[in-house]
Amino acid sequence: MQQTNLAANIRAELARNGKTQSDLADHLGITRQALSQRLLGRVDFRMGEVTAAATFLGTTIATLVGEVAA
């Protein structure tokens, strides 16, 4: 899984949905700092986190792991 595209797509979907990183971190049951580490590419997302993020953001896993969203 391309973590760079994933992180960029999650950030884009957060912005589109008017949600914050704190909102997503709460939904995932991780700290805001732990989410930040994932979004910066320092720690890989777990598959369960990707699935939960897609549900939270109202999108698909394929959208999150695909090409960088415009």
- Let me know the number of strands: 0
Helical content stands at 55-70%
pLDDT averaged over residues: 92
Largest sheet: none
Helix/strand-derived category reads: mainly alpha
Total count of helical runs of at least 4 residues: 5
How big a fraction of the residues is strand? under 5%
Helix-strand topology string: HHHHH
Task: Please state the CA-atom Rg, rounded to the nearest Å.
Answer: 10 Å
List keywords for this structure.
single chain; 70 residues; mainly alpha
Explain what you see.
- This protein is an all-alpha fold and 70 residues long.
- It contains five helices and no strands.
In terms of topology, how is this protein built?
Blueprint: H1 3-17, H2 21-28, H3 32-39, H4 47-57, H5 61-65
Helix pairs in contact: 2-3
